Amino acid sequence: MLNRVSDFVLNRFPLFIFCYFVLQILIRVITTNGVEIDESEQMMLSQYFSLGYNAQPPLYTWVQRIFFNIFGENIFAISSLKNFLLFSTYIFTYKTGLLITKNKKVSALSAFSLFFLPQIVWEAQIDQIHTVLLTTSTAALFYFYFYTLKKQNLTGFILIGLASACGVLAKYNFVLVALALMVATLFVADYRKKIFTKKLIVSVSVTTLLVLPHLLWFLSNKDLATLETMQRMSLDQNGSYFTDILHGIVELIISYLAFVIPFLIFYIALFRNSFIQKFNRPSKVLANYILISFISIFVIILIMQVTNIKERWLQPYLYIAPLLAFMLTDIKSISQKKINVFISTGLFFCSIVILMIPLRVMFVDMGKKPHRANYPFEQLSEEIKSIGFDKGLILTEDKFIGGNLKLFLNDSTIISPSIPLQKFKPEEKVLIVWQTRNPINFLKGLNLKESSGVVQKDIPFRYSKKFTYDISFQVYTYDGL
Questions:
Q1: Which residues contact 154 (CB under 8 A, 6 or more apart)?
Q2: HSE-CB for 148 with a 13 A CA cutoff
Q3: Residues 371, 54: Cα–Cα separation, whole Å
């Protein structure tokens, strides 16, 4: 039985991983009717097109708008995009391994090993968007990089430029990804000769052409585009340079180790006797890439006094670690029993993820507080409709409330003080929704008249008899139309 399961995973990996992510979409659609923090922001930003929105590049929002136009503004469109990108990351990893090693078992084990990286199998699934797109773009870049080395045609260089543009428009730190890969290439003479040719100008030109419109926006909004990131990176600064950089270096080391340790534990336990230290050219590039990315972040810590390193920031640098490990493994010497154990363990981990996503929502009363998927926004929208508001301009205290209400009040324009550079027009009906602080002053320039008194509701959280959601709202009319 285990042999057949392992054979299916290894020999038909694309089909296996496709089924896994289809299942993730189905579970999300069936068990939740709300969106997470980052997703709620996308619900609001996707109401209009812009060359830039905030501290994150705009590509995810642009693609999400396309999914909304095709499938409607709903959970299916949100989940489909996320899981399509995650699926693509696994497939690009698999295809890269196949391109390099021509060994289906090595390729499948490498891609399957992403189940052993919590940041990818769990964190990326529950509440990441831009980082997911960044990792997918990085995986695409590596595939097109090795494709170009093999084919040496113009198409490969165009694809490198396309993947690089997607990466930059996903997250700005993709620049570090591209830099680390190029520097890693310099240390492999044969690859250096094949990549650093006149054709590389085509890659740079494609990237520049695609990124340029947003770059012009970025230059006009530098503070907005960079301030939030800089604040996150320096959260724990205490004013002492040496103390801060020591803190940052420790955080970097811990984050790098924490990211890969679950995989390394099982790899070492099962395959250590098959590990070989003979590097070939592709494995040298991957090893150099991981090392150079570490050194680059280390230098950034020294220069910018960075104290806060998040594990999720390391996804584009370390997702490739399992592929490197299996490229340095004598795959023929591994027994079927050990492969079965590895596959079974990975399937156990992904099964836990599949089960935990709905169970943490359904058994919310066993925890200390509700999860975001438990918030009763569908019932809140029904309460709002019951007082006569079905469409108009909605001002919410924060983007989480706003993005979730957009799911159920699709015809309304929703704004929030937490979203910069919003585009909106006053409408006849204006609804204000808040939990702790009324944001009415955000519209103080408009001539608004109260159409209803303040309505305060205590709505039970979904699947909960223990927690209630204290929320207030009020309807106004606008006479300036």
A1: 199, 202
A2: 28
A3: 26
C-beta separation of 394 from 439 below 8 A:
no
**83 Cα distance to chain centroid:** 10
Residues 322-334 have a mean pLDDT of: 95
pLDDT score for 367: 87
Judge contact between 70 and 77, C-beta under 8 A. Answer: yes
Give the integer Cα–Cα distance in Å for 463 and 321: 40
Decide: pTM greater than 0.90.
yes
If one counts every other C-beta atom within 10 angstroms of the C-beta of residue 198, the result is 7
Question: Which own/partner contact pairs does 445-453 have at CB distance under 8 Å and 24+ positions apart?
Answer: 446/478, 446/480, 447/478, 447/479, 447/480, 448/476, 448/477, 448/478, 449/476, 449/477, 449/478, 449/479, 450/474, 450/475, 450/476, 451/475, 451/476, 451/477, 452/387, 452/388
Round the average pLDDT of the chain to a whole number and report it.
Answer: 93
What is the distance between the alpha carbons of residues 394 and 376, in angstroms, rounded to a whole number?
Answer: 18
Whether 444 has a pLDDT exceeding 90, the answer reads no
Residues in the chain: 481
